[in-house]
Queue: 4 jobs
Job 1
Amino acid sequence: MAYLLRRLLHGALVLVGVSVLSFLFVQLAPGEFFSDMRLNPQVSPETIRHLRAQYGLDRALPIRYVRWARSVAKGDWGYSFAYGLPVSKLIWSRARNTLLLTITSALLAWLISIPLGIYAAERRDRWGDRVTVAGSSALLTVPDLLLALALLILAIRTNAFAAGGMTSPDFAELGTVAKIKDVAAHFTLPLAALVLGTLPIFFRHVRAGMIEALALPSIQSARAHGIPRSRILFRYALPAAANSLISLFGFSIATLLSASLLVEVVMSWPGLGPMLLEAILARDLYVVIGAVMLSTFFLVAGNLVADVLLYLSDPRIRRGPA
Amino acid sequence: MVTTEPVIRVQGLRKTYVHERPFSREKFVVRALDGIDLVISAGSSFALVGESGSGKSTLALCMARLEQPGEGRIWFEGQDLFRLSGPELMRVRRHIQLIFQGTAAALNPRFSAEEIIIEPLRIQSVGTRTEQRDRAVHLMEKVGLPPVWLSRRPHQFSGGQRQRLAIARALALEPRLLILDEAFTGLDLSIQAQMVALLRDLQSRENLTYVFISHDLSLMAHVADEIAIFDRGRIVEQGQPSRLFSNPCQPETRALLEAIPGRRSVLGLGQS
Amino acid sequence: MSRKRMVRIAVVLLSLLYGAILGAGFLAPYDPAEQDRAHPFAPPTRLHFVDAEGSLHGWPFIYGLIPSPDNFAEYQEDRSRAFPVRLFVSGDHYSLLGFSCRRHWFGIDEPGHIFLLGTDGYGRDQFSRLLWGGRISLLAGLIAAALSLSLGMAVGSVSGYFGGFVDDTLMRLVELFLAMPWLYLLFAVRAFLPLHISPTVAFFLLVVVIGTVGWARPARLIRGVVLSARERKYVLAARGFGASDFYLLRRHILPQTMGVFLTQAALLIPQYILAEVTLSFLGLGVGEPVPSWGNMLGSLQQYHILASYWWMLAPALVLVPVFWGYQVLADFLHERLEFGH
């Protein structure tokens, strides 16, 4: 238990560290939201000064950070200049969409790569392995951007999938079933891009982990005892490879979040990505910080889940120190 | 000065290590050195004999000033090793050389024999590039290795040859004290005999003091003129080889003697 | 295909690519910024060997293009006017190693045009832009990787060699950087830079931003190598000869990090090329009129361009051989230098 508490504390510290870092980076920006307003003759300098004071931009950096932290504690996450709303109000629906995309694609990628990795490891260096390895290597050489663009072209050309956005223009008028269908149709393309982009990375790890597990003396001797192959694979080797796979799970969240950012922008999926881009272009500071913080939070949470799984699967850690 | 001062004087040396086992809060303390007093006079061959893992190597590292003791002092020719200024220490390092246990690991596999031998000279900025090269040739001859092998890398030498290479490197700075930590371990008997002959020869020509560290009492009886028996961080008995063999006072010494196969013949060797 | 041969092919391929972008001025038939307003979105020019009469030519030639009068960006070949492809023609100015040149690898006599990879919306030659844009993108990858690796090297070796408090602090910082999703991090750092800047400044800022974001992983790996290297006996031996920390790092410890260094370089360079492409694609990197693979792809965010003009995808397609080459190299280096003998 103490182990998990320590990991929790570590995660919290990482979040605080990231908040300070991103606050520092973003606040050091030479331009700010209101600097574009200065060029507008209809806005008096008086108004701008007033606005800046209202948002606290005339204060020193540490004070701004404390104010921001207080607003985080209140659940507002700062204020968006562009929308005049608390950041949390803007960000939650976006975060939900990003999560929907990343979690589904993570599950799908794992569901495909684990059996595939086991299959390849089992027939190591035979042609079944060679084909899958060559396929994954080929997929690995396709950058995410090209993958997303190529899938979009496919969608536009064939008209098979809805391309772009999350819903059709007439979404509001649809019935519940049709609504779900509509979202699912829009969902397919970004999902495919993310799964295809992360699959080869996961597959390689699963395969390597399984090859290592199959080489363990205990499993070699299980083989020699004539225990059936499937039983060896799933009852012996997979648990032995579990640890490295679980820690990979935490790491895979980072890859997915970054890949998702790009895919969302290219396919206009209304997630955190397009909002972040828009906020950067508008210098909407607190939205930028909010998006970075939230993505870091997902990552830390993913790592914590991995830690919990590791804790449950590995008795050594439970007996561990402190 | 030098003639009256012993080469090494050790007083009250203590050193403990605290081990923490991974995944455990248990700590256990190892007393590597537990109050060592020693005097080694110039030109002698001193041997420190004890079971492996009894902390002898720690003493070697302290004497070469590569390890700080917890307590106690060491004087080299009257100078306190642990109270030297930077330049003073640099000068003293020339005079004390250590040959490590497991020589292969003490030679950088990426270096050529020449680079290995002249490394001390480069670090101490002794001589020009060509002088260093001449020195390397000379040192190779001195330890009985063909100078044409200077371009070889450590893995191209045999175990005994690597040991010679390590000695050549240790001699590069013309030291006065040579500490040899298990220098003969892992070499076969004929090579051991060659090494002993080489070291004797060098000692007569270079005015060297040797400190041998070994677990092999019979071999040490052969090469040293003073032996200290070391057990669990302490020196339990000290004396000339013949005295130790004929009249061991301590149980640890007797245990070491009994570990020697065919002791009688060795005894004869020790007394010769 | 044997492993060795694959590595050899990868090296040759990468050298050809880098050679091509270095010689962009000579190899490209046009200036990358030159606009041909009469030919927006012209498709790749077809090389012909057989003329209208059906007789075979030993040397390729092309036909002129006539814009369709009814539709935007539709063209027909003008079979009445053939232009032979000429070698070493005189054309636009470019500078090569500081010399001003105007000799180009190949070209077409006026008023013909040769667009090997078509044109973009301003009628600029995609082939020329691809070569020039590769300079920005590939160079950004190299410089940013060099920056990341030197930062990682400095932090990793200090951390691993000196240990203690310094090590703890630096490693917490590394964890912090590794804990952030890198593209978000890149965006956040980019957010603090001015938006409207000259392409040159943008390029250097971009390189610095990408390079600073990625130092953490190499730093941690190099720390690991240094940590084990400093425990070697020969390091202790050299210390016994009076070697300084600087000497030990330079002569004994840093040479051992070479394997990790090279492998990381082969992994980071393509990642950073992609980072430049991504940022410029999103309008946060190098801007017009200077071409980069990223900003050349930018117009594809409009779906009708993406759907109609497939040749606009060329800058994304050239990433595939780049990625493949580096992947083969990285696998090879990883096996040979980090584990092998």
Job 2
Amino acid sequence: MGMAGLLQISYKIGIGKNREEDNRLKVKQWTKYILGKLIKLISLLVAVSILSFVLVSNSPIDPVQSYIGADMNLVSPEQRGNIAAYWGLHDSVVQQFLNWGKNILSGDLGTSLLYRTPVAEVIQERFLASLALMSLAWVFSGVFGFILGIIAGMRQGTWLDKVIKMYCYVIASTPAFWLGLLLLMVFSVWLGWLPIGLGSPAGILTGEVTFMQRIQHLILPAVTLSVVGVSNIALHTRQKLIDILDKEFIRYARAKGEAGFRLFWRHGFRNTMVPAISIHFASFGELFGGAVLAEQVFSYPGLGQAVVQAGLGGDVPLLLGIVLFTTIFVYIGNLLADLLYRVIDPRIRRGTLS
Amino acid sequence: MISNIRSLSLRQRALLTITLSVLFLLSIAIGSFLFGEDELAIQMQNKNSSPSLSHWFGTDWLGRDMFARTVDGLALSLGVGLLASSISVVIALILSLLTMWSEWADRIVTWFIDLFLSVPHLVLLILISFSLGGGFKGVVLGLAFTHWPSLTRILRGEILQMKTAEYVGISKQLGKSKWWVARYHFLPHLIPQLFVGFLLMFPHAILHEASITFLGFGLPAEQPAIGVILSESMRYLSVGMWWLAFFPGLSLLLMVGIFDRLGHSLQKLLDPFQGQKR
């Protein structure tokens, strides 16, 4: 409909006497919306950091020991005490939290014990690798899930619908890492088409890894994630389409002689598209969970692998950093889902304006 | 047989599904008791054999029968899932009943739901397991403390709806306490929801248990958990011992799928509105 049409409507129903006032109202609405979302994010981040800090500081895993690792015998108790004092482990938990929080606010997430580099750098580098994997999987699972859902919905009750539904139920019960193992067995071990693991081939400097080699190592984890992600969106789209096909306007369209793809394209497509994209955005948390497992199976050097190593190796700064980072990641997904409704669906948009 | 199934009503079909699934789950539980030390013992003369009639799922690098290990692993998952889901359901019930107390209580509970849903589920599980030092306790509590939000949301919605019902208003006017209303009006209505919610939580809990164990945070390596079996099998994939991963994973899939169907069938029986959906 566009801006002009919207303004015309709001003009007709008497909101805003002129264009300027209407625009001002709009800016005010959006500022309020963005401010509200920002406050929500900040309150969530504060709560998540308190929660995770309390959890981590209760852990029986000794950070000094995991820092020293195998050299435990070479380090005297006094030196250990010095390290603990240097990290402020002798302070109270509240004091530790405040110190940590102060550093975070100044942009310092601390230093990773495992990688011996700043946490922010580790997260940045690892996340870019994961992002390549997750965005590929996100797009593929979204497109295929949507198409499958549409086919099943349009052919409800037929064998095609039953096959698709069955497939979705089976996929929903499939452990993602097991699927990864199966793909690894078939394509890497038996057929030998694709490499067995690692984000880049072993024994080659990172600078010399070609683009093709990177792609090769990306294929299997991305396929795993895509296959697993299809189920939710397909079932949701199918149900949505069935609900819509039950509506009056569809009956009217059918009475006019529309059927099949034409009917779907003109009356079903946009109605199913928006909720489908929206729930797909809202699934960032599960997407990351799947990435953790896929990266572990294929030893892909992404953020998911880093969080597992951080947890197993007692790397507290990295673990906390990743928890906060993924919280923001999930939040952005939910925000985009919400925004999409606002921007695309004129009914909600108008509701916020009046 | 097939024509017989077709002639059954939806309700009868749901009952049939429930009976079959319960039988399957019972056989896992009983099976794990039948397999004792003998099958799980190390038998080096039988090591690395592929699936055969005497060893259905083959044997591993120590000659242990994979079928016995798998059944034991499934029973273990069943136990962990049962424990974790029960705790989770209790948390969900308590929190959802809290929402009727006052507007503030409601806001706090919703805020907690948002909080727990804001961190990726697996990351939260890793965090909790880390804080408890891993192991059995870490998994059970981790699963229990992360699976309640969605059910709480459903129960809260139910309570919000019931709050406006006339009989609740009349009870209040008669001077009944909030506790009385919760006990005699809300609870009986919530029990079917709780039960279905419990069953539908099960598959998630089991899958998450296997995942987190696979990653190394969950059950200790000496337990025959499916996650442990699968993570061990990774070392033997490149030598072509496919059965180490294939059958245990397939069995897990089967169990999770059956629980899912069981939950949905029960939902059809208990909730006629859901039953109409196809």
Job 3
Amino acid sequence: MTEVAPTQSPAPAGEITLEAGAGGFGNVENEATVLGIRQQTQFGDVRRRFFRHKLAVVGLVMVGLVFLAAIASPVIATRPPKAQDLTNTLQEPSSAHWFGTDELGRDQFSRVIYGSRIAVTVGLASIILALVIGVTLGAVSGYLGRGWDAVIMRTADVFFAFPLIIGAIVVILVMGRGVTPVVISLGIFSWATIARLLRSSILSIREAEYVEAARSLGAGKWRIVTRHVLPNSMAPVLVYAMVSVATAIVAEAALSYLGAGVQPDVPDWGNMISAGQKFFGFKDYLWFFPSMAVVFTVLGFIFVGDGLRDALDPRLR
Amino acid sequence: MGKYVVRRLLQMVLVLFGASIILFLALFVIPGDPIATSQGEGHQLDKASHDAIARRYHLDQPLPQQYVGYVGRLLKGDLGESYSYRRPVTTIIREKIGNTAKLAVAAIVLEIALGIIAGIIAAVFRYSFLDVLVTLSTTVAIGVPTFVIGLALQNVFAVNLHWLPLQGQQAGRESIILPAITLAAVNIALVARLMRGAMSEVLRADYIRTAYAKGLSKRVVIMKHALRNSIIPVLTYLGISFGALLGGALITETVFNWNGIGLALVGAIQQQDNPIVLGVVTYGVAVFVVVNLIVDISYAFLDPRIRLE
Amino acid sequence: MTEPLLSVEDLRVHFHTDAGVVKAVDGVSWSVAPGETLGIVGESGSGKSVSALAVMGLVPVPPARYESGRILFKGRDLIAADEKERRAIRGKEISMIFQDPLTALNPVFRVGHQIAEVIQAHEKIGRIPARAKAVELLGEVGIPNPRQRAREYPHQFSGGMRQRAMIAMALALDPLVLLADEPTTALDVTVQAQIMDLLIRLQADRGTAIVLITHDLGLVAGHADRVLVMYAGKVAELGTIDDVYYRPRHPYTLGLLNSLARMDQRRTDRLRPIIGQPPSLIRVPPGCAFHPRCPFATDVCRRDVPALEPKDGPDHLAACHHADQVELQQSPAAS
């Protein structure tokens, strides 16, 4: 599973360029790098660094292709994904069936293409759910502090005690199989890290001088949170969310593979791998192509996440 | 130090309390009739025996009372009884935990040994061929889900090369190799990355320069001064990732038909044997929480600054 | 002047970075004799620390590259020496202390252990006697209750005590040369004085040569025998304290002196800072690097790099086309 630990301490974005290359062999590198580095506008800087990151651009293209497959499935797929053809079962990949057919004669290429819909839906929806819960609770916790903070963080600890897949299985047990239960289960066991990240980010930023300045100018609490604190604390959260989409897609495929994900007849990569395993050793294309689809999608999101992280915080390179 | 341990212990109790509520709600709010389900389709129970079973599994009491009873039984190590096997879940876990533990320990050893070594090499020889190799292979490994790694390893080493057994545990010591690598793979990559990052940062620290200025050899500087500082985030990660390891064990055991509690859990999901599912989940959560407590405490031994807080 | 113990000759250390070549040290020579204190003064970015780090072999190669020069210690060229030879010298014959004693000590090891470590690295000595020697050294540098303190961690020490511990570590094996890179910059003023007194006392006991690297001309005035002024990777001026302070021959030195609050100066005079910023070491101005900020600058300064030549006497060197005019424009202290 790709549960990526949030190890980076969030850096207020404004300082990024100035701190580039700092550390070094103390004076030596400082003396070498202080010079000639101008501070540039924050967004332009992030965008420039992102697009200079080759792997990030590759990742963006990969993710783009997956989205295209999901949106345009009916156009790209050569056959309806559930159409059976009992005269053409277990066909090796050929020009007629690029990824071969399964034991019911269903076209594997079309099923892989349609499978991207489940992956994209679950990946995005579950992380959006996690973001809604995590950002709200993290912001309340970090900004209101005191009792709120204690209750929310202890609750986060509880959710944190459930490994993602295992927590998800409990929810599936209650709600039954299907896309919605999978989205909900992955969402409610992913928000805790987001809340923690945002909270610690806010705690460091709310003491920053520009927030003090806004406060002393009489800006209201709500305005300070929405205009100053949140935008500056979101960087680590966004990076984490991007990688979490990959984690959620893997988790969905794993749940379906284990028989605790979407319904078995749905064209889904995890389902296809599980079904294909029955013919392991002689019809390996059955599990190979859906596996590659998962790998392709997951790598795409990870590359984008990596590029985003490096672009937002170049010190970590 | 004592204070720190006590505080972490209290925190752990709180977490376990919260987790028990979630699990209890899941257990007793599950829609449908588990008793009927457990009998299999087309098998009708008369009212009396249905009630008898309900009493036996405490399903007839009001919820708060059920919760108190549930926690009481948990504390005694009683995780309930399997609907389908009619045996205590604890017994089933006890029979199978050894296999799972063997697999998990083998995987953790691989994670620590390979992950840390690869990370150190990559950090020390930054931007060299070895670093690029480590960075590239870890980047790809992170993107490959556990079950795909397992299937690919089976295909290459069992089906095609016939070097190692395809699945099961009959082949003795050899049979654990592929499952352990499968379970560890993603974490080896993540540990290596984390170690590379932490080590690169530590190697730029002033105290590393001091260590060189003292005339210490590169080996001592890296393996003592730098390692001791950079291992801390890796250790934290290993604690956190233990949860993912448990999830991964489910998948690995399924792929390799490895007779551990993960396989029992997956079987129970399909048979809707809820006591087994929740019992195993409860057990997994408890182990995860305890492992993290141990990690946090050993962390305090490694970093004296934490000890005093 | 006695025979130099350590001498740096025409050293050039350039950093090859993505942004360009940084000429951190560009043809610098200096030497230090036993028991002597040489002050190296310059703004941050002048390359003043790099030549000391080069002596220790602590300049990271790459990105750095030694373009030319020799570092002679006891007749051997350290640049040409192999790593094993250099390691035997580091910490034993030449040691170094750094600016920030908090980050310079390893946070996860006990202070006593870190001191004992340098002794064990160079001498065949057991763990227990090395530990005892560490305690003894901590006492010697003025840390009360050294036995107990040796068992504590750096974060339990105050800033001044950490620097004392660093000094104990650096002087553990009675090195011949101590390179002190901004040893008091991170400390409070009163603690600064204590640390300098400690260094002077230990120097008197042991006859250690000290290279005191600082941006603080006042510190050098009080403690150094000779002073080297660096600007943009090059030597601007070199001479005895009296030469440089009372007869500066480089406008940069003059500027530094003018921007210094001095006890012997009339209080009505205002401090006069040097106008402008030190140059980027990637784009050093042509000719004399100081010319954009120099009140004496003429066409020749913009065209030709001035040579470092003797002025007044053989031991007072300055690199300025208009050194004679600088003499006319005396610093307020001498008038």
Job 4
Amino acid sequence: MSLLDIKNLSVEFQTAHGLFRAVDGVDLEIDQGEMVAIVGESGSGKSVSMLALMGLLPWTANITADRMLFDGIDLLSISKKERRQIIGKDISMIFQEPMTSLNPCFTVGYQIMEVIKEHLGGTKKELEKRAIELLGLVGIPAPETRLRAFPHQMSGGMNQRVMIAMMIACNPRLLIADEPTTALDVTIQAQILELLGELQKEKGMALVLITHDMGVVAETAEVVNVQYAGQQVERQDVVGLFDKPQHPYTYALLNALPERATSKRLPSIPGVVPGLLDRPTGCLFNPRCQFATDKCRKEAPDHASKVLCHYPLVDGKPTNNHPGVSASDVSVSGGAV
Amino acid sequence: MLRFIISKLGVLIPTFLGVTLIAFSFIRMLPGDPIELLAGERGVSPERHAQLMADLGFDRPIWEQYFSFLWGILQGDFGVSFTSRTPVLEEFLTRFPATVELAGCAIIFAALIGLPAGIIAAVKRGSAFDHTLMGISLAGYSMPIFWWGLLLIILFSSPDMLGLTPVSGRLSALFWIDQDTGFMLIDAFVSDEKGAFKSAVSHLILPTIVLGTIPMAIIARQTRSAMLEVLGEDYVRTAKAKGLSPLRIVGVHALRNALITVITVIGLQVGVLLAGAILTETIFSWPGIGKWMIDSISRRDYFAVQGGIVLIASIVMTVNLLVDFMYGLINPRILHRR
């Protein structure tokens, strides 16, 4: 049995302009000790799907799923109180902005000890000892003195380390890291990712890494989920994904990597992720897809298929009797636009 | 911390000098001759008038009068009221406990109701409770004090209506107790007179409600908006992700951050109330400093007014200083910011 088993997860928000489907039929299966990356542009519903799992979405969100099991526990049917006993302990989450994610009014020691006390208990001495241990573990120098520091007295990278210490304090079995390095500068990014990787191996945690950085994915993940506009478009192991991307979106994302660029200008995917008011009919990616046909513009691909596309790519070429594309279509996303 | 204190005190000195200047000059700008008001209808001869002016020092140049006033304050001498012939400081101190008692009860009443109401309204945003509370607080905020006080007196004190509470004063005339502290609640409590404490409490109820209504409305609204802002912050989401109870998330993580705004509001209100709840004290014949100031102004008692205003302003400034220090205790970022 997998540690986490999500099938056909959808999240809808009631907005002033009608129902908005932020997450649409996402599946996620993670085994103990596995590392999965969820990749996609901003607005593709990566964070929302994980916040739904944590139960951290506002009440305006309507969450549905065929299945949402953690270690055999049905997360959809348990009470709020039962969920509180799981999150922060067995499932925990690290956020994007370390500077604002810690409470400015309390010392970092207090904030770490608080979560241990809530889930595991212990005397003040034991809690303090454990907090110092954790701060040392995440690579904070002089942890005894840092215990009494406030978040504003430390750098962003240090705060993210504190955040990690706080979220691994109860030895979670699943850690979700929501773009943990986006707000940090590049040298610190590498350190934090390295730390997460080490902790994951050492503790045998499952790790979900949400990111839009393909470089990060290549370095860390075992399995990759690619999301677009709330839909999961492709799922592969990391080697397969980089070698043989099957969805045109994955293909385009990989082509946009500076390392792979062949033309003088960096290739990009034209347009943006559709929002609430500009959803296309048919496949959601069709307006930006270099291989889109009339079928793509009319019919949405089947959720049940492994790759969410009418014409999955093999070696960068569409299959399933694709009618062929005109040269002008290719140039749109090919590079020198 | 030391730098924080010094920088705060540094601001106080010019403020204090400004207050003395304003207190000194404003009462002198009012038309009306204090000597003639003192003499009353009989009038006073020009010679006697000049004599009295010289006695009180009003014949000296205006700047000399100001500096002698300032010099007196520095020595703790606020002058002698020329209508009651008692030192201004003494007059102030005999009345101040009455004001503190009333203001204290009013602010406690306001905070005890306003704070939880604001928190609940924020947590249950958009609910019937929220809408009702905001409606009531808007009404409370715009309530004319004079009308509200009289309304309550008619409803609760009139023998024809409920007849539950006394109309005015601090204690029933049936009792005679020693005013050792000046705080009627304490004095009545320690006295041997049976029922005196109950009487003191019943005299306080209506003025407390009347004086506390506006601060209560302000506190409720400010608490609500401060909490709403804080509840949307990332660290509240972190607290939820830690699996903490809603009570802990709202009461510890959110409230601590919202308190900055709320403490400011309460502090300002304390300042306002201590400065003399002029209307409330007048309606209920409450012998506090608000009523004393009004009486002194109408008598053109220059020394009482200027001394009284400086004393009141000093207290307001002290309260504000305490509020500043409390910021630092609640939110360490303020202490460390430089």
